[in-house]
Structures are given as C-alpha cells and as structure tokens.
Amino acid sequence: MDIPPTSLESLAVHADRFPDRLAVEIFANRISWRSFHADAKRFSHALSGIGVQKGQIVAVSHPDPYVHWLLLIACETLGAVSASFLDSEDNEGGSLADLLALAQVVLCPDKPRLSGNYRHQRLDSDWLRQVFTLADPLALDHPQVSFEGSRPVRLNRSSGTTGRPKLMMMTCDMQAFWVRHIQELEAISPNARLLVAYPFTVNAAYCRAMACLRQGGQTIFAKADEALAKGDITHLWILPGLLGETMERLPADLRKLPSLRLTTCGSAFSKTLREKTLERLGCDVLFGYGANEVGSAICLIDPQGVGTPCPGVGLRIVDKKGQDVPEGASGMIELQTPGLVSGYLNDAKASRAAFHDGWFKSGDIGQRLEGNRFRMQGRSDEMMNIGGVKIAPDQLEQTLRKAVPSLQDIVAVSTPDADGVERLCLAAVLEPGVKMTQIAPQLAAHIPKEAGPVTAKAVKELPKTANGKLRRGEVRQMFSQQAKA
Predict the structure, then answer these.
(1) Angle CA(405)–CA(469)–CA(444) in degrees, nearest 5?
(2) Structural domain of residue 260, as residue ranges?
(3) Residue 258 and residue 374 share a domain
(4) Residue 244 counted as domain residue
(5) Contact by Cβ (8 Å): 195, 235
(6) Are residues 105 and 42 in the same domain?
(7) Residue 7 and residue 175: Cα distance in Å, rounded?
(8) What tens digit of pLDDT does each residue of 351-402 get?
(9) Are 366 and 375 within 8 A, CB to CB?
(10) Are residues 252 and 346 in the same domain?
C-alpha cells in the first residue's frame, strides 16, 4: 500500500482501514486510529482558529507527548514550520533564545521567560478540554497544505557537541528522507510496537514516531524498563547512557526479546554494555553514526568499530586540501544525503565552516578502509598532541574499553598543566564497587609511554548532549579547574 506523504493523510488512511486498531499507547491511555485521526483534525482546526498559517515558525512545548505530537501534526497540516522545545529550557543567550527570536507563535502551558516578538497561546487544561471535545471532528474546517518538497516544515537543532546548538531548517523532502531511511533501516512495519524513550526535541525520536505513524504501527510512550519488561516492544532507539540505566532497572526474570530491533548512536558503545544488553535482552544492537545535519544512523558501526555507509549515503575522507585520502590514511569525514540541510540559520560563518558543495564536514576524523568502509578516530578539534605525539581520543577510549571490562564509559581529554604542557586526563564511569586504584595498572598498560603523567578520575556520569554526544569541553573544564585548585 502506498503511504500518503503527509501525517494527516496517513491518519485518514489508517482510520479508514483499521479504525479500532491501537495507534498510540501513552502509559495507561490507549488511542485508536479513529481517535488519533479525529484528534489531529481537532487540533488542526484549533490552531487555524488562533491564526497559525502557512510559513509561520511555531515553537511547541507540552509535557504530554500525545498533545505535543498532535500540535506538530497540526502545524504540518497548516503548512507551518514546527520547532520543539522543553518547558525546562531556560538558556538565555542559548539556542532557545535563538528559536524564540524567530518564532511567530509559541504554544506551551506557560509563557516562556525569554521574550520575543511572538504570540503566545497558553495550553492550559481549559483550552485543551475545549479542543478535545470539539464535536463532529471530521467535518471541522481548516486549511490542509499539500506535500511540497522544498517547503520548510521543521526547525531542528544541531546536537551541540562542540558548543551552542545551532538552528537548521528542514524541508518536506529532507524530513521524508529521515522517515524513509528509518523505516528501511529498522524494518518498521504495520506490526511494529515502537517505544519512544525521548521527547520530540530529539529529532531522531520524532522521526521514528513519524515513521511508525506512516506505516500504521503502534507508537508507545513509556519508561524504557517498564515497557521492555512487558515483552511486546519490537523497536527501540535509545542512547547508550539511558540504555545502561535501563539494563540496571530491568527485572531479574525478564523474558528475552531476541526479535527486538534495538538501535543506538551518539557516544561510544562499550563492549561491556553490548554484552550486558545481549545477556539481558537476548538481542543484538545496531550502532549508528550520523548527525542532525544529514540524518540518523546513516552509517552502521560494527563491534570492531568499522563503519559502512547505508545505501544512498555519500561518504568520503579528505585531507586538509579537500582531496580524498588513500586507503589506510586518515582524514576528515564528509557526508552527503538527501536529508542534508543547507546550513545553519543566521550563522554564515559556521555554515561556511561545515558545508560546501553539497557535503557536510562532520568534524570527525576517520581512517579510510577498503570498500568505502572507515574507522572512527575522534573529532578533528579534539585530536590531542601530548609530548609531541598526536593521540585520537576516540581510538584511545575504544582501546581502554576493550582492555578494561569494569569500565562502563571513559573519556580522554588533554589540558595544560601549570607550565602550559598538555597532559592526558581520563574521566571514567566504573562498574559498581570498582575503584580507580584497581584498574589504574590496566589503563597504564594501554596508554602510550610518550603521554607522560596521566590524571585519572572516577565520575558518576559523563556530560552529554540530548542526542548522547559527549561534551568534551565540560570534561576538559573539570580537569582545568581541578588543576587550578
């Protein structure tokens, strides 16, 4: 069956074919395709009634993921550009301020503290009650903008790996690539029960929910450990940090889920966590490599750290002059997909640095292998030069994770000492009951002697972005402050 290109059209098809079949499960609330379609019509009518129209940028926030989703579908239906944010965000001078400076309309329970030239619609219980009780929803009148490939549809944010997240405009075609790629990679079908473990501010979570909607599968919003314990989840995208926490909270008598399609990405996936996941869930894990600028999990990384681009994905490794490096050499990874954004909004300098001639400069260093495969070696702006020896942090971290089973996670950074000499510093998350002194000899055995004195510190967790990517700058700052104390 051909799936219509818009969410509301897809909902209409599923509501007609399977009106009483489950579409959304949000904790104890079960919503059929008939109800989902009717609610989407109600919200489209309501947003049209408050003046939301084609081309407007609409910032959306609501703690109920079903309400949030309905608001996003309504924006898409009316031709508006949606952008999700969290009520808890309060970063004046940060990416939320950038978003609100562009928004014409803001939909959320309470007006944001940050000011702007936007119109705020308060999503209180009275307003929501009025919308959900609108009679005869299928007869409600509202504009319905058709699919237009080049039309802006979603305002997304970069992961913020190297600092302040940047705003990026996605067109209908770009979002369609994300959704189609996820459907194919993760084999999402009408029989899927997809668990959404993150808010829709995470574009990878939002597009997976959209992929499930398009296919007519069931989308589940619940705590990961509780949903997995029921034994009927078929698909889950989860970052390594939350996956580790989930493995610890699962019941001891959990039934294995060998058919679960579990995908992760973002930060490095340790051997220990992979083995623990296999032991507890009985399923393998797809580890994806991608970026918000190009798409989610557009390359797959095997347990040995070797990456392979998915079909339709362009990948090349180039030197400082932009020339392809020979096999076995290392260079900058550049990526190209139909989901590639054109640049960062209102940031020409950053756009020129990251995009050129239809390619995205990932900022990652990789070694070119045979057959267009590659091996990740770290960030280009994080390559360490210690004692005259260049050390790729990702490669060192991967070596240490394999060598020391009691490591849950580890990050390597360099900071200058009192004499201005760069020193290697390690921040490690250890298995319960393990002390740093116990594993220090194992770590030392796999660190280049040229690195000199090493500072190692045990931490409860590593600072990461919402997409699970490591904030190395914060780790570096922690060691810098420690050196000054």
Answers:
(1) 35
(2) 229-378
(3) yes
(4) yes
(5) yes
(6) yes
(7) 12
(8) 999 999 999 999 888 999 999 899 988 777 777 877 656 677 887 898 899 8
(9) yes
(10) yes
Same domain for 300 and 417? no
Same domain, 254 and 119: no
User: What's the total number of domains in the chain?
Assistant: 3
Q: Are 170 and 154 in contact (CB under 8 A)?
A: yes
Residue where a domain terminates, one of 171, 191, 211: 171
- Dist. CA 434–CA 438, nearest whole Å: 7
Q: Which distant-in-sequence residues (6+ apart) come within 8 Å of 308 by Cβ?
A: 299, 300, 302, 372, 373
pTM of the model: 0.83
Q: Is the dihedral of CA 57, 61, 65, 70 positive or negative?
A: negative
CATH at residue 326: 3.40.50.12780
Question: Torsion angle of alpha carbons 402, 407, 412, 415, nearest 10°?
Answer: -150
- Rounded CA gap, 130 and 140, in Å? 14
Q: What is the pLDDT of residues 21-54, one digit of tens each?
A: 999 999 889 999 999 999 999 999 999 999 999 9
